[in-house]
Amino acid sequence: MVQSIGLPKEIKDGERRVALDPSAVKSCVQAGFDVFVETNAGVGAGFSNADYEGVGAKIAANAKETWAADLVVKVKEPQESEWGFFRRDLTLFAYLHLAAEPALAKALVDSGIDAFAYETLEEKGGLPLLAPMSEVAGRTAAIVGAHYLAAGSGVLLGGSAGVPPARVVVIGMGVAGTMAARGARGMDAEVTGVDIDLHRLYMAHQEGTVTATLASSEHAISEAVRDADLVVGAALVTGAKAPKLVLRDHVASMKPGSVIVDLAIDQGGCIETSRPTSHSEPIYEELGVIHYCVTNVPGQYPKTASRALSAAVVPKLVRLARDPEDPMLTGSLNISKGEIVHPVVAQAIGR
Ligand SMILES: NC(=O)c1ccc[n+]([C@@H]2O[C@H](COP(=O)([O-])OP(=O)(O)OC[C@H]3O[C@@H](n4cnc5c(N)ncnc54)[C@H](O)[C@@H]3O)[C@@H](O)[C@H]2O)c1
Predict the structure, then answer these.
(1) Does residue 240 form part of some domain?
(2) Which of 268, 295, 322 is the last residue of a domain?
(3) Above 80 in pLDDT, residue 185?
(4) What is the domain range of residue 31?
(5) pLDDT at 254 over 80
(6) Could you say which DSSP state residue 247 is in?
(7) Where are the bilayer-spanning segments (predicted)?
(8) Which of 296, 338, 343, 348 is nearest to 115 (CA)?
C-alpha cells in the first residue's frame, strides 16, 4: 500500500526539470498521499519550497528522505549515486530507457524494486508519458540544429533571396519528428520526413509539416542524408534499442559542417556515429559532421517541460499509487521483483 510519495531533485547533468509541479503535488495530497519534496527540487523550473509547502507537501532535507517514501517519482533515469536507494519494497516511476542502460537495468533487477517507465506506458496506440517531452525535444531539435549550423557549415535554414534554403531530413515522423519538422519549416527550411509508417507520412504531407516525404529504407536514407544540411534522428520502436538507420558511410558522405541531432540517443541512437552527450558538452565532431546527442534535451526548457510532464504524469501516478495493476498503466512496468517483465525491454538488453 502506497502512503507516501517522494519527489527527489534531479541530478543528471544540466537537468533542471522536476517531475511534479505544485499543482500536481496538490492533486496527490488531495488524493490522500503524503508527498515529500526534496528541498529546492523545483527551483530550476521556477517552483520554490514555499510553493510546494503551500499545497501541502513536506520539504525533505535531502534525497535520502525522499527515497524513503513508498513510491518515488522523478524525471530522468536514476543516476549511479542514486542506485544505493533502491530497495525491494520501493516503487519507482520515471523515464528509464533501459534498452540503452543495461547497468541500470541490472541494478534495478538486483534490488528487487518495482520499476515503472514513462516511455513504455501505452494508451490508444500512443505513448502519453513520452509524448510531452518528445514535443519539447522536437521543437528544440530545430532550434539547436539551426544554432550549430552557424558554427558548422554556416548555412541559414531559411536561405535568402538568390540562395536556396537548407535541407533538413527528419527520420521518424512521430511526435518528436513532427515537432522538429514543424520547427524547421517555421524557419523556412526544406524538410523531408522519413518513416516506415506511410499513413504518418501522408498526414505530414497533407498538413504541410514537410515539403517532401520518403518511405524509410537504407537506400532512400543514404541519398537524403548525403544532401542534407541538418539530420534529425527521431525513430523509435517502443522499448527497443533504436534501429540504426543512418550508417557511418552515410555520415561520411555528408557535407562538412553539416549537423546531426540524434534525439533517439536515449534509446541508443538511430545514427551509427552517435554517442550520448550532455548539456555541459553537447556536441562533438565526427567525419566532419557536428553531432548533438544530448539525452535530456527538454532539461534546458525546465518550466515548460516540467509543467507538460507533470500534467501527463499525475493522473497515472495517482492510479499507480492506488493500484499498480491498473489497466491505465499498461506497458509501463519494466522490472518487478528481480525480473525484467517488459518483453521488448528484456529482449533489448538480452535477458
Ligand atoms: N534526447 C531527448 O532528450 C529526448 C526527449 C524526448 C524524446 N526523445 C526520443 O525521441 C525518440 C522519438 O520519440 P517519439 O515520441 O517521437 O516516438 P513516436 O513513437 O511518436 O515516433 C517514432 C516514429 O519512428 C518511426 N520509425 C520506427 N522505425 C522506423 C524506421 N525504421 N525508419 C523510419 N522511421 C521509423 C515510427 O513509425 C514513428 O513514426 C524516442 O527515442 C524518444 O525517447 C528523446
Answers:
(1) yes
(2) 295
(3) yes
(4) 4-120+301-348
(5) yes
(6) -
(7) none
(8) 338
